[in-house]
Amino acid sequence: MENFDGVMVAATNFSKNLDAAVMRRFTFKLEFGYLDDDGKRLFFERMFKSKLAAGELAELKVLRNLAPGDFRTVRQEQYYLGEDVTNADRIAALKEECALKKDGDHSAIIGF
After folding, report:
1. Cβ neighbours of residue 101 under 8 Å, at least 6 residues apart?
2. In the 3-class helix/strand/coil scheme, how is 6-64 assigned residue by residue?
3. What's the rounded Cα separation, in Å, for the pair 92 and 81?
């Protein structure tokens, strides 16, 4: 790594498993947490091109471990099913994505 003449970007979900010698070789270390309420609304509206009603937004805010990739997964899943999809369907699918995460852990960090 020290002899590489360029920009190197790396990502991991296991930064706690890296030793200090590896960590000091990276100039910048970024951590990305789960989306906050504004981020969830923004990703929902942009990924699904749909506005949320107040009740729908309240349901979305309850989900505490949503990441951008969850919205992409749901969008792709519903695209391949080829059915008419409502916001309620989208929120239900996002709830399922949250339930698949390890023990519903809301504190995990995403990224390197």
Report:
1. 65, 108
2. CCCCCCCCCHHHCCHHHHCCCCCCCCECCCCHHHHHHHHHHHHCCCCCHHHHHHHHHCC
3. 15
Instruction: Give the domain ranges of the chain.
Output: 37-104
SS3 at position 71: helix
Report yes or no: 40 and 66 within 8 Å, Cβ to Cβ.
yes
| pLDDT tens across the length of the chain (112 residues) | 778 899 988 888 788 888 998 888 888 988 888 999 999 999 999 999 999 999 999 999 999 899 999 999 999 999 998 889 999 999 999 999 999 987 545 455 555 5
Burial 14-37 (b: 16+ CB within 10 A, else e): ebeeeeeeeeeeeeeeeeeebbee
